[in-house]
Design a protein that fits this description.
This protein is of the alpha+beta class. The chain contains 3 helices and 5 strands. This is BLUF domain-containing protein. Pfam families: BLUF.
Length: 132
């Protein structure tokens, strides 16, 4: 089975995207699930929205998206891109997280290319080895 990358944006219910405890809970659960399922990725929170890229096998990404769709902290989930990839862009993290880089556009306006650029910039700022 080939590797895939899935990028989605969602609206946080309530203050989920801005509440550090809530984001920490999401990241903690995600890291455990992703480690088990061999999924890697990065999650950003910005202006009440989540932007996430996840990478792994298709079946694992299907299970992940089912959990996200059932999670009451997410609404208005929009998949921006899902495609086969030759290698992982975010291989070092079961689930890195943070806020959008300074000057990032609203997640509401991003297409797949723009979303990938924001996620990559955030990974670089976080000091990911592939960007060093």
């Amino acid at each position: 089975m080939p590797l895939e990358r899935l990028i989605y944006v969602s609206r946080a219910r309530g203050s989920a995207a801005d509440d550090l405890l809530t984001v920490s809970e999401i990241v903690g659960a995600s890291a455990a699930n992703n480690r088990r399922d061999d999924v890697t990725g990065i999650l950003l929170a910005h202006q009440g929205r989540f932007l996430q890229a996840v990478e792994g096998r298709g079946a694992a990404l299907e299970r992940l998206m089912a959990r996200i769709e059932a999670d009451p902290r997410h609404t208005q989930i929009e998949v921006l891109e899902r495609r086969v990839i030759a290698e992982r862009q975010f291989p070092y993290w079961e689930m890195a997280h943070g806020h959008a880089p300074e000057g990032a556009p609203s997640f509401d306006t991003l297409d797949a290319k723009g979303a990938f650029a924001v996620l990559s910039a955030a990974a670089e700022l976080a000091g990911a080895p592939e960007f060093s």
